[in-house]
Amino acid sequence: MELWIPITIAAAFLQNLRSAAQKQLKGVMGTTGATFARFGFGCPVAIAIVLALHFGRGDVLPDANAPFVFWMAFGGLTQITATFLLVYLFSFRNFAVGTAYSRTEPVQAALFGLIFLGETVTVGLMAAIAISVFGVMMISLARVQMTWRGIAEALASRAAGIGIASGAFFALSAVSYRAASTSLGGPNFMMQAAYTLAWTTLFQTILMAGWMLLRDRAELVRVAKAWRWSMVAGVAGGLASFGWFMAMTIQQAALVRSLAQVEMLFTFATTVFFFKEKINRREIGGCLLIVAGIVVLLMLR
């Protein structure tokens, strides 16, 4: 089994934990604060990983060259933009439609990988990506009443456009992080990933902290008061991001983000076994499609 596969699955599991922690934070603070907790408390984790690799393993610190700085900053900005667009969808009545379209990220990552990095994906791998994406979209729309008129309106809705834009920015950030990490040229994929993550989270933390100091200082106070859950979100998110960055350093972003759809299976396992909630047939069908897409993806690797 290729190394990027277990790394991606582990990262998806950790991201599910981070999402659960952020859900707790949403009860005591706004969206900006819950988002900031992910970066602010995740930044020390990323720096600690770099220091552990440098002093513990003797890995050499990479040089932050110009291409690295550009792709790191571009990835950080596009990730923040994607997150805010996704949050903005909640103000729409048909936000589920938009959320479903934001899940087209792996397909768009394949396109941006081709445009910016010259990376190609075979027809078979593209079909595997499409199967898993369709499964995720089925789950996202499982609670929506589907009629021909409703589908047509959904396709032409503003929420759908924002969802696609959100997915595009997430895809751009994934491709940018891969470009930033690989531009370092060494010493190894672990240090490259950790170094890229440390710079990115520091950049995002400074940006968001500055914004909140200017626009909503009370939110920073709420984040500080909820430091326990913020720390859980930051640590889980930081470790998950380290996994994503490692996987995308050694494999194309489109394939990593496609396999990352396994997170939806972890989410459903939590829903069924811990929260004792029922899922409908469309959701079960979506889960099966995700599994099918992942199986095809792994068979073709």
Report what the structure shows.
The protein is mainly alpha-helical and about 300 residues long. The protein is built from 15 helices and no strands. Helix 1 crosses helix 14, helix 4 packs across helix 10 and helix 10 crosses helix 11. It is globular and about 55 Å long. The protein starts with a helix and ends with a helix. The mean pLDDT is about 85.
Number of helical stretches of at least 4 residues: 15
Class inferred from helices and paired strands: mainly alpha
The mean pLDDT is 87
Distance between the termini: 9 Å
Q: The biggest beta sheet, please?
A: none
Beta-strand share of residues: under 5%
Which blocks of ≥5 consecutive residues have pLDDT under 50?
none
What characteristic shape results from the CA principal axes? Answer: globular
Give, in order, the helices and strands. HHHHHHHHHHHHHHH
Radius of gyration: 19 Å
Say how many strands there are.
Answer: 0
Helix content: over 70%
Top keywords for this entry?
single chain; 301 residues; mainly alpha; 0% strand
Structure in a nutshell:
This protein is mainly alpha-helical and 301 residues long. The chain has 15 helices and no strands.
Question: What is the strand and helix layout of this fold?
Answer:
Elements: H1 4-25, H2 31-40, H3 43-56, H4 66-88, H5 95-102, H6 105-117, H7 123-140, H8 148-155, H9 158-183, H10 189-215, H11 217-225, H12 227-250, H13 253-259, H14 263-273, H15 281-300
Helix pairs in contact: 1-2, 1-12, 1-14, 2-10, 2-11, 2-12, 3-10, 3-12, 4-9, 4-10, 5-7, 5-9, 6-7, 6-9, 6-13, 7-13, 7-15, 9-10, 9-12, 10-11, 10-12
